[in-house]
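Before we proceed, please read the two lines closing this message. Report back on whether the structure tokens fit the sequence:
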Amino acid sequence: MPNPTRWVTDTGPEHSQWYIDRFRRLAAEGADLTGEARLVDALVTPGSRILDAGSGTGRVGAALAARGHTVVGVDADPALVEAAQADHPGPRWLVGDLAELDLPTRGETEPFDAAVLVGNVLTFVAPGTEREVLRRIAAHLRPDGVLAVGFGTGRGYPLPDFDGDAVAAGLRLEQRFATWDLRPWRDDADFAVTLLRRPAD
């Protein structure tokens, strides 16, 4: 990977296992880990193709697959992908840098109806690649496909920069909320959930 992600440069070598253990523990405790998936499920028709970009341990993609969607997950961290494969068989989990995303070369030639970027993924990609990540994801969406993005507003990626990158990537901003359960957006919100769409024309 020519440009290391912030997931690599900003965390220690033990971080991936800590992350895996954390979500396994939360699942065992019965925590609600599917809020993002519920929203995305409401945005698409049954049996949609969904790209889980920055899929981590697979919790969101697995929840979408359980709702009958075809899911392909991609994450740059091999340890997280291995955990997703072990904990959530069914979806296709792949190791890959989102800034170099090219799924047709890996056998996924059909466009996606929707994509998700959850868990602060955009704040963990390599610095300066945010626009390219959005462009690559947009290229995998069918016309009129939707992209749901969520990240903390205090994590070094200002919303005006994100909005500009989204437009430059060929996406249109449709809605913004303060939480995944659709609390109204406020300028002082510490989290942003943004729905983007690849125009149909």
